[in-house]
């Protein structure tokens, strides 16, 4: 299948009351593992890469997105389930603009912490550009001007205000809105409940699909309730990499001396084969919670 329009993925989720999973990839084997799970459960899926991670690498240039775009488009074309394709969370304008023409059909600009109003205006301009190319935009409400500025980009966590969310969506024209209702990105241990009252109010004020980042750390019951309150996309990444690295460390502790048996020969001991299966199983652990299985 070709890449599925984000609007169609979200329309299906809205009609049938489920969420589509975004299980973030970083390599060919991780991307294949995500697709394996999607096909095995007949689930629509959003595949993609983290734009902040890609753009922060030493020597990285936006031109590399042509390679990542081609990889995602090819994987989606070969998949037997509908797939959206996101360039997720990037604060660098040249990268976002390049992603729009590189094959991604969903981009998410991250707040780079500029002057009040800067992020909203950036999102508005980018949304107009993306829509002219048939690409959807996901964003989050601009951070309040009085934030202390401490911590890394992924540590800024502010509860989303329903009124501000409605104003932001009206001002920018975005297609999906990521909300902060107790969810935490890059949560390494444990799972937390959500502020469902706040989420319900946002859902009442905002008509577009809502997104939860930090799916790794959300309690199961809270996630199911959130889907009933308008969440139509859930992001996962941390726990997948944790499982991948745990399996990789185990494989590399083998006494095997033939390097080909551990890397590149396609056997069961090949770490790339192992990585693909680990990611498939990791997705299978969580995807049923979203209610999307059997909807492809």
Explain the layout of strands and helices:
Blueprint: H1 6-16, E1 20-23, H2 28-41, E2 45-50, H3 51-56, H4 65-78, E3 83-90, H5 93-101, E4 106-109, H6 118-132, E5 136-140, H7 162-172, E6 176-178, H8 196-205, E7 210-212, H9 220-228, E8 231-236, H10 238-252, H11 259-262, H12 271-287
Parallel strand pairs: 1-2, 1-8, 2-3, 3-4, 4-5, 5-6, 6-7, 7-8
Can you name the CATH architecture? Answer: Alpha-Beta Barrel
Approximate helicity band: 40-55%
Individual helix count: 12
Strand order across the biggest sheet?
1-2-3-4-5-6-7-8
Tell me how many strands there are.
8
Order of helices and strands: HEHEHHEHEHEHEHEHEHHH
From the alpha-carbon coordinates, what is the Rg to the nearest angstrom? 19 Å
Low-confidence stretches: 149-156
Instruction: Name the structural class.
Output: alpha/beta
Q: Characterize the overall form.
A: globular
Q: What is the terminal separation in angstroms?
A: 11 Å
Number of domains: 1
Overall mean confidence score, pLDDT: 93
Q: Per DSSP, what share of the residues sits in E-state strands of 2 or more residues?
A: 5-15%
According to CATH, the homologous superfamily is Aldolase class I
CATH fold name, please?
Answer: TIM Barrel
Largest sheet: 8 strands, parallel, barrel
The CATH class designation is: Alpha Beta
